[in-house]
Amino acid sequence: MNEISHARALSGTGVTATAAIHANLTAPGLIQHAMRRGEGRLSADGAFMGVTGVHTGRSVADKFVADDAEVTKEIWWGKVNQKLDPAKFEAFTADVRAYLGKQPELFTEDLYAGADPAYRIKVRLVTTNAWHALFARNMFIRPPVEELAGFEPDYVILHAPEMDAKPEHGGRPNSTTLIALSFAKKIIAIAGTSYAGEIKKSIFTVMNWLLPAQGVLPMHCSANVGKQGDTALFFGLSGTGKTTLSSDPERALIGDDEHGWTKTGVFNFEGGCYAKVIKLSREAEPQIWDASHRFGAVLENVIGDERGNLDLENGSLTENTRSCYPIEFIPNTVPGGQAGLPKNVVMLTADAFGVLPPISKLTPAQAMYHFMSGYTAKVAGTEKGLGKEPQATFSTCFGAPFLPRHPEVYGKMLAELIERDGAQVWLVNTGWTGGAYGTGHRMSIKHTRALLRAALDGSLAKVEFETEPFFGLSIPKALEGVPAEVLNPRGSWADKAGYDATAKKLQGLFEKNFETFAGAVSEDVKKAAIKAAA
């Protein structure tokens, strides 16, 4: 044990244990224990390689929220936030505590979520595995040693990945996995899944609950800042390039996934990055590559040979291979994780239909519409069970699975902040061009970076724009270094009639999705909505 009493290490958790407790160990100690316990192995470069078994991603269907009387009226109940009877939550957490208390050793980490001290919460993790403790330590903010002495948690994570949830715990029938959260009790209990992302996203859900009541917009976005102090936000679902594009050598990284927008600026929720690394290229993404090939990083479900040489092209375990590392592994970051008010907001989509422009300038009403839409498109190879045709995905506010409150709460806050702070909003397609998936090709990251840099440095706003007819988007007519046929996607298709038909199809999908939130937006947003052609 790290010279901390059992009582202090487990204070606030409800866990009673006589076992060895390894509290607040740093990366070397945690990796030493993980190797001793056979939890994984090291890559040739010293990164820890863990395998998560059956669950290689979040188990959305197994996430439940306790239906506590104090909060029930404010929660967005449904498929995202499934109700769990408070009595069953109590039974579940009691069993998780009992399970943890019987283990021969436990690992605890005391961490912060929120770089801004005014909105920070204290988190205590209790887990059975050293590598999960290292994941959390990499992912969240590590308090200075002098701040650990009086540390008392605001929220507790009880993490028992090898324990099976039971039917009486109230989760999904016939499932042994349960991720349960109580805002009233300030407890998260996780059982039956080793996928480390559940730890990260459970705290993101907590921040999404707490901050709106304090006048702060929590956002599923990355953020960076330029040399002139200009802050930019990057919204986008998995696979859209959010992490890649915000890790720009010419701009300082604030954070890669979760932020808050306050009256005075932007702050990171985390102290690390959780990057998707399938087919990661050193040439295209040197910062993420280097961060993933060093001691202290955690690699999830990444394949390596007997010597630990990584095969990042190999998705045999999952396409959702991940690297988790402290943010300081990226060379150009913002000390303290805070910066000024956003000047630009970028909404990323990977349009596999190949019909959206590579960049569009949005009006405030369009910005609200696309934020509430949260569009991207998945293709075969990104998820099991997908066929050859692209599948449109709409995740409101670019983070529906993590929104405990009604989406309009976040949407209205964003609209107010954009108007208040005068931020320019851009829609960027990092998906396909020249045809849909299977016919066209992925948008050149060189072109995307050129367009983004022009948007962020203000030069793009000075060029002439035109309105394309299908989605009502304002697109640049010309930009040095980017071919004209790329700027207007119809020009990149050899089959013009095929483009028109595909664009009309996507129009219809946008229109159908709009029905889910049309009643919660203003008339201006309704007028800006994409409508299917007659």
TrEMBL record:
Protein name: Phosphoenolpyruvate carboxykinase (ATP)
Cell compartment(s), UniProt: Cytoplasm
Biological role: Involved in the gluconeogenesis. Catalyzes the conversion of oxaloacetate (OAA) to phosphoenolpyruvate (PEP) through direct phosphoryl transfer between the nucleoside triphosphate and OAA.
Cofactors demanded by this protein: Mn(2+)
Keyword field: ATP-binding, Cytoplasm, Decarboxylase, Gluconeogenesis, Lyase, Manganese, Metal-binding, Nucleotide-binding
Lineage, highest ranks first: Bacteria, Pseudomonadati, Pseudomonadota, Alphaproteobacteria, Acetobacterales
SUPFAM superfamilies: PEP carboxykinase N-terminal domain, PEP carboxykinase-like
Positions contributing to substrate binding: 58, 195, 201, 322
Residues that hold Mn(2+) according to the record: 201, 220, 257
Cofactor note: Binds 1 Mn(2+) ion per subunit.
Reaction catalysed by this enzyme: oxaloacetate + ATP = phosphoenolpyruvate + ADP + CO2
InterPro entries the record matches: PEP_carboxykinase_ATP, PEP_carboxykinase_C, PEP_carboxykinase_N, PEPCK_ATP_CS
Family matches, as PROSITE patterns: PEPCK_ATP (PS00532)
Binding site for ATP: 201, 220, 236-244, 285, 322, 448
EC number(s) given by UniProt: 4.1.1.49
Pathway given in the UniProt record: Carbohydrate biosynthesis; gluconeogenesis
MF terms (GO), sorted A to Z: phosphoenolpyruvate carboxykinase (ATP) activity
Membership in a protein family: Belongs to the phosphoenolpyruvate carboxykinase (ATP) family.
